[in-house]
């Protein structure tokens, strides 16, 4: 708790110290009660359009879960998602986030032009859960959202590829009008074959490629991904933009949808105002 507070605003702790051999209930046991006791928190990070020079216009937000742990403070997903996958709690967490994200979007005043979207991350298990499609439909209806306002982010992995029903489920979701995004693009298992086999609406270029910008090889990679995406009619988002020169490199490659600390960190109530982005003029 002390450590988490010391890290300051928006900083979240990793539970490693406290989970390894510490006395008290196991994180696994506590995870079971986290949902019942309402300890999960919804943080949102703005996704912006930077096609207008110097301006970042919010088009949506990504929902990122945190766990307000009674002893350990605010925990990042890295501290508990693997455990949640192993113990099967992940689907309950994902569905909690889906509901909270839709509720947030419905309560958010519409932006001037187009309606905002909210993006929710999903584990493969959640995606293939038989309840999932009905849950999505119900959440959209309950909160009065159009299906196009919901983006579902999936991470390519061997286990996801091997799950029976993934392709059909994604097709059903897209049929509904919900958008599907391929998260962490470029890092996972068999990226290109995924693009070939799975019809998706969006890809998110992984932060590891953005971090190296404007390094020549990374610029080439980003341009290549954009060209590929254009051919396939897929939207591209660059994630993890921290520096103005990274933003400029993306902009000159015609990559206009971005997300990152430069624009805004994940927060419980993110600012959705259009903001200036320039040297020394960050959010
Ligand atoms: P992700 O979906 O790729 O989300 C982006 C991660 O990068 C987030 O970490 C975000 O806080 C962080 N990030 C954003 N901008 C920057 C930046 O400029 N610099 C740096 N260094 N980091 C940045 P977070 O919130 O810790 O989440 C980590 C991962 O946990 C997510 O990666 C996602 O795969 C997973 N996750 C988060 N929420 C959920 C959820 O509700 N369900 C599931 N299944 N997975 C989730
Ligand atoms: Mg994501
Ligand atoms: Mg990602
Ligand atoms: Mg990730």
Automatic annotation (TrEMBL):
<feature type="domain" description="EAL">
    <location>
        <begin position="24"/>
        <end position="280"/>
    </location>
</feature>
<protein>
    <submittedName>
        <fullName>EAL domain-containing protein</fullName>
    </submittedName>
</protein>
